[in-house]
Each structure stands twice: as structure tokens, then as C-alpha cells.
Design brief:
By secondary structure, the protein is mainly β. About 0% of the residues lie in helices and about 50% in strands.
Length: about 500
Amino acid sequence: MKILLLLVLFALSALPPFIQAQIKTYDIKRIPAQEEPSFYGNLQQISPTRTLAQAGNWNGYPYLIALNSDGMIEHKWRTNFKGGDYRSYYQFANNMLIYIRTELVPAQMPKPQRNRLRMVILDSNLIERSNVVIDSTITGYPTDLERNILLDAIKLLDTSIVIVLSSTSRDRENKTTLVHFSKDGRFINRISKIDSNQYVSFLPLFQMQSGKILLIRSKYTLNPERFSNSLFMSDTALSIDQTPIFDSLKYQVIISTSDGGILMAYYFYEFNQILYPNATAVVKYDKNFQKQWTTYVPGDLSSHDIQLIESRTGGYYVTTSGYDTAVTKMRPDVLQRCLKDIVLSKLDTSGRIQFTAFYGSENCTENPFGLIQDIDGGIIITGGYNQTIQPNCEYLCEDQSAVWLFKVDSLGGPAKKIVGVDENVKPTIGMKLFPNPTSGMLTVELGKAGYYSSVEILDLLGRVLYSSPIEDSTQQLVGIDITAYTSGNYYCRLKAPDYSIVRQFVVQR
């Protein structure tokens, strides 16, 4: 299958040099839908060589998997119960995994189908240590939950867990209940907040460095009928501040940042349709909730698949569902929503886009499910292949629906095109370019003889202008004649079997 990895240039300004870290990548793995798993999501790092993911299959029994450094399933644990819905929570801390999920309880007349909560404790090898129903004898909360009860959970700074149970009824009082468990799964206390006047629900997001909990208040009004979201702060007892931080909030995802602030992203429905027909807004606020910057990356208005993480080396990564503009121009007869790709964008701490990469196949639809930065700095992405909720799109793609798992380096590679990249990483097996700027010969000094297989020169659009193999295993220097090149910025790329290094240089006339 032909994989399209298209990197798009957002700014043609000169960029400082960089050296790429050595990162092992593995190819995209498409897994047919009739096999398991049918999806990956909620990625968490549990060791230097293993990544945990929530998975599932079509028969309703969710499970967890541990992926090794090659992207293969090393351990697997399956539930012994059917999931009540797709809401669940897990966290790995102190070499122990706590997994909380709703369980579907079959209808027993006159009782309809209902849910109940289960808590499972596993070790780092996904060996089950405990599996219990969280019933009323533990929490004082009813064991059997109505189907309109939603489950969410957050981890506090001390790694204890707060389970959030909220109702979705519009015709009676609504109650939000917080159930607090210790980091090893012991019940601590329960707090409830009842609203009998209007439909209001609360969704805690995370605990800030100040100790306050950041939460979303969703409010339903009947006339006119609409939902509105507001951002509030509260203490751990759910005593909510009177004044919202933001009212009429737009968001799909919000994360805390290492500087004490927050970062949010949402698909931008009112953006300039002429200049940027599809966009995702990424907005950074400081610890006092003062806006620092807003950046726009490719996005798809018909989807809500956004993943957002903070990089270990500074800056942020965001995955969205966006249109492959090259393919849509070739297929004007096809709706854009049928040609979506997984899009990875890297932003620096000032909000400047360092690169954007598209991953997908022509005439197929891809969506992101999960995103995490591996211990070596590489980026692991999961998603759906040819999985679309839009009608009349499936006929374009000959492949069946499947799930994807792939890893790229910190610059979005492997890729067909290299564009605006700006990253400073401690060199391992690096290279030097001199003179830089240059007007005649460019000398490339290899960081290690016998390691690289080829050298390339690329323009800012990622087009390969020059390529030559490196056949001498003792060679330390490579000379390249660039007298025919016009003034401007270019890239030199050294390629090795497992990774590549790219560095910028300037031609002056």
C-alpha cells in the first residue's frame, strides 16, 4: 500500500540549524478489522520499552495491551465483562495499573439494561491482581447505574483518583458525584452536587499546580435550546468559584503545561474560508489564564479527533484530522471529507509551527485515536484507516477498514518532503556543514564514518535537488557543488538505515 506522507510549509523565513536525535521508527501497521484489536487509544508510557494502550474488538469486550519498542503486542489483558459504553479510565503509577470501566448489566425484566462500575488492578505485565465491582457497600453510591450516567475520572497531583459520575437527564434534578480513591484503589470519600433548576453537568479536567481543579461546566437551556460550556476552578470538595475563567468556551481538548498554564485546541468553525478553508485553533494561556498566543494548524470541520501533548524537549505536538490538499485538487469530483488524513503538527513554545505532516493513503480516510512521545523522543500515533462516519465515501478506498499504529521521529519522518523544521537536540551521530552561508562548494562533515548511506539536498518545498550514495566506509567529508543553486535556504539530509539527519544551509550570491 502506498503511504502518503506530505509535509506542508507554513513559513519561508530562515530557520536556525538543528540536529535530529537518533530515533528508531517502525512502519505503519494496518490491522484488519476482523482481527483484534479494532482500535488503540489512551496511550501511556509504563517503561522505557513499553507503551500501554486501551484496545477493543467488535464483540464488546475491551482490553489493554502493552506494546514493545517495535510496536508489537507484548502483553494483553482482556476484561471478563462487556463494556457498558466507551467510557473508561486507567492510570499507571508505582508499578501498578488501576483500570476503571462501566460494565454492561443485561436486562432482567422488569429491570432494563444498566451499568455498574468495575475496578481492576494489574501489574506492569498486565497480570490481574484484583477485579471488583464498585458497589454501594464501598462508596454508598448505588451499585447499578442508569444508562444515562456518564463516567469520567482524573488523576490528582498525589496520583489518587477522582471518579466523576454525572447524569444526562433534562427533565429532573441532575447530580454530579465525585468518588475519591487512593492511588492503590482504596475508597476515601464521596461528594455530590445537585442542580434541580436547570440542566448543568460538571467535568473535572485535571488538578492545577496550585491545587485547584480545572473543570468544564456544561449548561443546557431550553429556550433557545442549546448547550454552552464554561471553564471554572474548584477545590477538591467541588466548591466551584462563582465567576468562570472563560464563558462560552470552545474546546475539544485541554491539557496542563509544565509552566503552570494550559493549552487547548478546537476545530475553528469561523475561520477565513478563503485563506484557510479548514483549520484547528491551538491556544496557549499562562498560569493566570492570560492568552499568550493562538496558532492554526490543518483541521477538518466534520471531525472532533484532536490529540494534544507537550514535548519532553519543549513545545507541543498536535494530531488532527485534515484534508490532503494535493489529492483533493486531483479529485474535484469527490467531497473533501472523503479524503482525510492524520495530520501531525509540531509547535514551539511561542506557538510557531515547526512542521506539519500528513499520513494516509490516496482516496482513503484516516482519523487519529492516540498520541504519545516515546522515551527516545519519537512520536507514536494510532488511528483508524478507511473508517469514516460520512456516507458515500467508502467506495473510493479499495481497502477494508482497519486500525493503524505507527511511529515517526521527532521531526515527523519518515517522510517524502522536509519543510520548516526548527529543533535543537543534543547531537549523537551528527554532522556539520561549512561554509554556511556558502556560494560554491558545500562540505558535509559526517559524524561517523561508515554509518550513512546517502546525502541529499532539498529545497524548502521538500523536493530533492541532489542525491548521491556514500559508498566509502572510511569517508568523513562529502563535497557538493552548489554553484548552480540560486540564493536562498536549502536543506542537507544524511540518510541511514534507521533514521536521518537534516540541517539547513544558506546559499548567497
